[in-house]
Design a protein that fits this description.
The protein is of the alpha+beta class. It has helices spanning about 1-20, 45-55, 150-155, and strands at about 25-30, 35-40, 65-70, 75-80, 105-110, 120-125, 145-150, 160-165, 170-175, 180-185.
Length: about 190
């Protein structure tokens, strides 16, 4: 019986270890270089599934990081190089109370003033942005992953001069398009 319990304990430990290391990773190749996002599907299942939907259907490819604010964040996934808005699936439920914080290198869902309006746009934090977290009366912005490799590429985005496109009501648009060339899930 003791041997059986010991074997069961070892098997349970191995299962826990495997689930920790089995987090989905997404490799993003841009015209500035590559970076890897690790998703937290346990704490942010809705946002992670939504993000993967756009990865898997290929519609993030050819989109740009259309809003880059040094010291704050880089936002993308919603527009192509001509600043044409890409089609979206239905908005998702805000998961900002999942315990994940808008800290440096985290990836979160962009949205409008409506907390449950996130679709395809996401952003990457350049620093800890605690004011974006859910608290009290503030709905917050749902973090669902983290850049685990290639954060220097994200930092490079912040070095490109930006402009305002008044006719579209867009600010902080990089003057040189930052294009997602390919995006795919990778094996860990």
């Amino acid at each position: 019986m003791r041997k059986f319990l010991a074997a069961l304990t070892i098997m349970a430990s191995a299962t826990v270890s495997l689930s920790i290391h089995a987090a989905t990773q997404v490799e993003v190749s841009t015209n500035l270089g590559d970076f890897t996002i690790q998703l937290d599907e346990q704490k942010a299942p809705v946002s992670s599934k939504n993000f993967l939907r756009y990865v898997e259907d290929g519609s993030y490819e050819g989109t740009i990081f259309h809003r880059v604010i040094p010291g704050f964040m880089a936002q993308g996934g919603g527009f192509d190089e001509d600043l044409t808005r890409r089609p979206s699936y239905e908005p998702i439920k805000n998961e900002a109370t999942n315990g994940l914080k808008n800290d440096r290198a985290t990836v979160a869902m962009a949205r409008t003033q409506d907390p449950n309006s996130a679709t395809r746009q996401f952003y990457i934090n350049y620093q800890n942005n605690g004011f974006l977290n859910a608290n009290g009366n503030q709905a917050g912005y749902a973090v669902f992953g983290k850049v685990v490799k290639g954060f220097a590429v994200i930092e490079k985005m912040a070095t490109i001069p930006t402009t305002t496109i008044r006719s579209m009501g867009m600010k902080d648009v990089p003057q040189q398009p930052i294009v997602i060339k390919t995006i795919k899930t990778i094996n860990n």
